[in-house]
Write a structure and sequence with these properties.
The protein is 45% helix and 28% strand. By secondary structure, the chain is an alpha+beta fold. The strands form 14 sheets. Strands 22-23-24-25-29 form a five-stranded mixed β-sheet. Strands 1-57-56-55 form a four-stranded antiparallel β-sheet, with no helix packed on it.
């Protein structure tokens, strides 16, 4: 089965890329990370990858088109290229690859799209510094020009937002405007300003550019000429006053002018960087060429760092505003992304601060990586002095903290609750709390470059140079020191059962160690190779190592079984827990996945993700994800899939734990806060109940007042109704008279209007006819005049022409040729003038008559309009007459209806009078009933007084029981004190036992010494016997016998004293042995008794604790029942009283008497039941007391209790 690693999620940002953050749409941004461009959705948190080219040496710059559809990516290589991607495609389809043709270009430093997204410009780097102008869809270079020289580099280029042909270029001492004309780029502005370092620019309008410099100056150019200038000086923040004295570097930074490294424009103005950690927002003013400083936005302090103010000292590289102009993004030189809503910045004003767009990334080389088993967590450490805990399941940052020293290595405990970090000065074991990473234990291991927990978590290995230290996780003791490497150890791996440890180093050695004995079990040394990574198969039979010799080696039984050659050096290696997959990281930042067993030929799948050498790799416990870190500061999560794109089925079902660590002080603080909140809630409940009671009282009083007012209003309404009836009768008589008068007036007015309108219509009609005749006459006259004028004009022209022609002929004959020519010219001019005068007169006459005709036409139109108006008035008057007639008929019908209504109202009045009489009678009856009910209420109040007295007596009876409960509590406290005393006795006994054990150890040591002495003496006696036997052989030779005896004496005389002392001390040794046996027997019997006593005490303690718990639970239950009974009794009384009141108001007298009698009997029964329950509780309490006393007498001594009794709830 071939396996592929697919990019799933990445944490990190490349700060060295020009324009390294931009918006794709309102929710999606694009930024470079590793060797990829990442499309990141801010709301849904998903990522899509745009991979870089295989042969590229890294991304240099980004540019997005104005329509947000295309993305241009510049990459460094042997030949620099620009790749254009289509962002509308889900996989960001590659559209075109642009190059500089035959020109030797290794990289394009910056790029920009034209306003219509059809053209692209790119600034090439050294040595030529050419500016290229492409029609990118055809991959055609339209023009190229040298924009600057190597001494003055270019930082930014851009198109005019409304002109495809105008380009702006800024850099160190460079501010140039180019225009594309006739197939070439020509400079249009003359650089007359002082040479300054222009770091950034942006187009404010189609002819204005705002430019930022490295000395804090903002310059506004229009058509290449300076129009406006200001200095950006960051305001001192209020946080600086709370800080201690600044360092020398901070003072120098504060004195130096801020560098304006980024500018972004929007509809209201523009935003620019204003020094370290600050962005200034400028807005337009009413003046034409002026902007005002509106607000400042700052990067906040980092509370997770040992020096929170360090976060404020980041330089902002890129600013980007969302398409809707709601959000501002900023990227910094510490590889961080910040965002802020511009609306919130306007609200907060001077105190506006950025927030992290997603999470806080690493800003340096990541040196350590490790995962755990019980939680979906990853730990990383970096040279940026931070340790971060990531969650690969939720793709989030759980914890992070910055320290004072650089972190070189990290190891995460299998439980996910502890982390081991190697710093420059010490190795530190830290607890992962709910909101902090806190140091727990420090070890004197300096510069630990590699550390690792065992799979069981009970041991951990730490590397110090060429020595591997193994410590116990529980006791923190240094168990073993593994020495054998001649060079620095670069990697260590534990076997699955933690019985062996494999290490590799710079000396070319791979050693396998036994972690129980500390001995070396196998070794493989290849001095020509410097190993960088190592891993082990799950069965611990094969070892895989990579190093500087461009090979992957499989080692088993101290021999290299197989080598796989490569074209790049491998930096790290890891194997899956299933043993089927092998992943190798390279110095080029790629991942190679291989099958296991390794194939004979070179077979692997290569995946591109990082832009620098990979430093560490690990695989999750369920083999679903591969995790890699690199020198580019990025953490990349790979999804392990097969070639068909399906995820692998995990053989192990992993259920992640949810527990976390929290300190006792934090827990106590939170519990204290909870208790305070609970007390506050109870106080609020009491206050609310009190206020509700007050409101009930007020509402009852208001109800009484309202009932009284209602009765008074009823009486007032009765009087009003009578008055209204009399007025209604009067108005009816008036209405009938007015109706008759109105009908008569209407008929008269109608007749008058008809006669007057008829006369007016006749007059208007006559006027209309007269005007028509006049207009016809006028038209005829004007036409005749026009004809006459035309005829007269034609006759006059003919006469003039004949007259002048005759004169011309006469003068032509008399004058010479030259004079004749001049006269001809003069005559021609005069003729022209005469003709022009005639034409003018004709035009004047025409205009006069046409104006007169127009005026007559207008008058005719006015007359026609007036006649139309009169016709409309006539028709409207006729309609009014018809409407009036219709209204008269309606009024007649309404009069008939009103008469019928009056008759019905009179009938209703008679009925209401009858109802009023009947209600008066019912009111009198109800008043009598109310009087009777008041009497009964007085009797019930007497009953209530009696019942209250009985309740008081019952409360008095309850008080002694509460006193008894208090006494029981005191007894329980005394019993707990006794338990504590027994506990102290037990501890004393344990101390005695330990002393006796130590004595036993001492006696055992002395015994061994004595045994050794006995053996030495026996050996000496044997030697003496043999020597004596040899002497006996010389018994026939006295001299030799004497010499040998002298030799024996010289040899054994100093040891014979010892033998004599041993013989003398034999009795002492026997006595010592006897006493020792006696002590051993007594210790054995004491141990047996102690075991029995502890078992008895433990069982007795448990039984008593259980009984106490049951008693306290019974007491609590009885108290709850008492409360419930009291509350139910009180509720029943209130409910019955309310029911009785309602029923009394509606039912006759006999029912009321019966209900009151029943309630009285129910109350008496309830009181009897309560007394019976209380008697039973007294008997139960007395029985429990007797049991406690009996237990105290039978068990005077008890071991201490293991836990606390539950609190008695009152």
């Amino acid at each position: 089965m071939s396996v592929v690693a697919q990019s799933f999620h990445i944490f990190g940002l490349r700060a060295g890329v020009t324009n390294n953050v931009c918006y794709n749409d309102e929710q999606t941004i694009i930024f470079p990370s590793g060797n990829n461009c990442v499309r990141y959705n801010v709301d849904q948190k998903w990522q899509k990858f745009i991979p870089g080219n295989d042969k590229s040496q890294g991304i240099i710059a980004l540019a997005i088109s104005p329509n947000r559809r295309y993305l241009a990516v510049s990459e460094r290589g042997d030949r620099g290229t620009i790749t254009v991607y289509d962002l509308q495609h889900d996989q960001s389809k590659k559209r075109k690859v642009l190059s500089a043709g035959d020109a030797p270009v290794q990289e394009f430093l910056c790029m920009a799209f034209s306003p219509d997204s059809k053209y692209l410009i790119g600034q090439a780097g050294a040595p030529d510094w050419n500016l290229f102008y492409w029609m990118w869809e055809k991959q055609k270079v339209m023009a190229a020009v040298k924009s600057t020289n190597p001494a003055n580099p270019v930082y930014q280029i851009s198109f005019n937002p409304r002109d495809n042909t105008q380009v702006c270029v800024t850099g160190s001492g460079v501010f140039k405007l180019f225009r594309y004309t006739e197939g070439s780029l020509k400079q249009t502005n003359a650089q007359r300003l002082d040479a300054q370092n222009y770091l950034s620019h942006a187009w404010v309008t189609d002819d204005r550019i705002i430019v930022g410099t490295d000395n804090g100056r903002l310059l506004l150019f229009e058509g290449g000429d300076l129009r406006w200038e200001t200095h950006v000086v960051p305001k001192p923040s209020t946080r600086d006053s709370d800080r201690s004295l600044p360092s020398k570097g901070e003072i120098e930074q504060s004195i130096a002018a801020p560098r304006i490294t980024a500018v972004a424009t929007y509809s209201k103005g523009f935003a620019c960087s204003a020094g370290l950690g600050t962005v200034c927002v400028f807005e337009k003013t009413e003046e034409k060429d002026n902007y005002r400083r509106a607000r400042e936005i700052q990067i906040p302090q980092d509370q997770h760092s040992y020096e929170p103010s360090n976060a404020e000292h980041q330089e902002i590289l890129t600013l980007c505003i969302s398409p809707s102009e709601e959000t501002l993004l900023a990227s910094t030189d510490h590889c961080q992304l910040y965002s802020i809503a511009l609306s919130s910045a306007e609200i907060k004003g001077e105190q506006a601060q950025f927030e992290f767009l997603s999470y806080c990334f690493h800003s340096g080389v990541i040196t350590g990586l490790d995962g755990c088993i019980r939680k979906p967590l990853i730990a990383t450490c970096s040279l940026d002095r931070s340790v971060r805990i990531w969650n690969f399941e939720t793709r989030s940052l759980e914890l992070y903290k910055e320290f004072q020293e650089e972190a070189y290595s990290v190891a995460l405990h299998p439980s996910g609750l502890y982390v081991l970090v190697g710093f420059l000065d010490k190795l530190r074991l830290m607890n992962l709390l709910i909101d902090d990473i806190r140091i727990f234990k420090e070890f004197t291991v300096r510069g630990c470059r590699e550390c690792s927990f065992s799979h069981g978590g009970h041991l951990f290995a730490a590397v110090n140079g060429n020595v591997i230290h193994i410590y116990s996780t529980t006791t923190f003791e240094n168990i073993l020191n593994l020495k054998g490497h001649n060079g620095k150890v670069r990697s260590v791996v534990w076997s699955p059962d933690d019985s062996r440890l494999v290490s590799c180093g710079m000396d070319g050695a791979v050693y396998e160690w036994n972690t129980l004995t500390g001995k070396r079990e196998s070794e493989c040394v290849l001095k020509s190779c410097s190993y960088t990574g190592i891993t082990m198969s799950p069965d611990a039979k094969a070892i895989f190592a990579v190093g500087s010799d461009l090979t992957l080696k499989e080692i088993a039984d101290s021999q290299i079984l197989r080598e796989i050659q490569s074209d790049v050096s491998y930096t790290s290696i890891v194997m899956s827990h299933s043993g089927r997959m092998l992943f190798v990281g390279t110095s080029a930042g790629t991942i190679r996945s291989m099958k296991y067993p390794l194939p004979i030929q070179k077979e692997w799948n290569e995946c591109y993700g990082h832009a620098a050498p990979i430093t560490k790799m690990t695989i999750t416990y369920d083999d679903q994800f591969l995790l890699t870190v690199s020198e580019d500061g990025c953490l990349l999560i790979w999804k392990i899939i097969d070639k068909e794109g399906r995820g692998l089925k995990s053989e192990k079902e992993v259920t992640y734990a949810e527990e976390i660590l929290i300190t006792k002080s934090d827990l106590e603080e939170k519990n204290q806060i909870m208790l305070e909140l609970k007390t506050r809630v109870e106080e609020l409940k009491m206050e609310n109940e009190y206020q509700l009671r007050l409101k009930d009282m007020n509402y009852n009083e208001k109800i009484k007042e309202l009932t009284e007012k209602f009765i008074q209003e009823m009486e007032a309404l009765k009087t009003k109704s009578q008055v209204l009836k009399s007025e209604m009768e009067k108005q009816q008589l008036k209405y009938t008279q007015e109706m008759v008068d109105l009908i008569e007036k209407q008929s008269k007015e109608q007749q008058d209007l008809e006669s007057a309108n008829n006369q007016k219509l006749m007059l208007e009609y006559e006027k209309y006819q007269e005007l028509q005749t006049k207009s016809q006459r006028m038209q005829e006259e004007y036409e005749k005049q026009l004809h006459e004028l035309e005829e007269s004009k034609s006759l006059a022209l003919e006469d003039l022409t004949e007259y002048y022609e005759t004169k011309i002929q006469e003068k032509q004959t008399t004058l010479e040729q030259d004079e004749s020519r001049q006269q001809v010219r003069e005559f021609e001019e005069t003729i022209k003038q005469v003709e022009e005068d005639g034409d003018r007169e004709m035009l004047d006459i025409k205009t006069k008559f046409e104006s007169q005709v127009k005026e007559e036409k207008k008058a005719n139109l006015l007359l026609k309009g007036e006649t139309g108006i009169m016709k409309k008035k006539l028709s409207s008057l006729q309609k009014d007459i018809e409407d009036r007639n219709f209204e008269i008929e309606k009024l007649k019908l309404e009069q008939q209806k009103l008469q019928e209504v009056i008759k019905s109202l009179e009938k209703d009045i008679t009925g209401l009078k009858k109802e009023i009489q009947e209600r008066d009678e019912t009111i009198q009856d109800k008043e009598k009933r109310i009087y009777d009910l008041k009497k009964k209420n007085q009797e019930l109040e007497k009953f209530k007084f009696v019942l209250d007295y009985k309740i008081k007596e019952l409360k008095k009876q309850i008080e002694p029981r509460e006193n008894e409960i208090k006494e029981m509590k005191e007894q329980i406290q005394e019993m707990e004190e006794e338990l504590e005393r027994f506990h102290s006795k037990n501890t004393q006994l344990e101390l005695n036992i330990t002393e006796l054990q130590q004595k036993l150890k001492a006696t055992n040591k002395e015994k061994q010494k004595e045994m050794q002495r006995v053996r030495d003496v026996e050996a000496l006696v044997k030697r003496f016997k043999t020597d004596l036997h040899n002497c006996v052989g010389f018994i026939q030779e006295p001299k030799k016998l004497k010499d040998t005896i002298c030799e024996l004496y010289d040899r054994y005389v100093h040891q014979s004293d010892v033998v004599e002392i041993v013989g003398v001390d034999a009795d002492i040794q026997r006595e010592f042995a006897r006493q020792r046996e006696h002590l051993e027997r007594s210790v054995g019997s004491l141990q047996k008794k102690l075991v029995k006593d502890t078992d008895i005490h433990r069982a007795e303690n448990i039984r008593i604790m259980q009984e106490n718990v049951s008693l306290i639970k019974e007491i609590n239950d009885l108290r709850r029942e008492l409360k419930m009974v009291r509350s139910s009794a009180h509720d029943q009384e209130r409910a019955k009283i309310s029911r009785n009141k309602t029923k009394i108001a509606e039912e006759p007298e006999s029912k009321v008497n019966r209900i009151s009698f029943v309630t009285f009997i129910a109350r008496i029964n309830f009181e009897e039941e309560a007394e019976r329950i209380m008697d039973l509780q007294k008997l139960e309490i007395q029985r429990l007391r007797d049991q406690i006393q009996a237990q105290e007498q039978s068990y005077p001594l008890r071991p201490p209790s293991g836990g606390k009794l539950p609190a008695i709830t009152t």
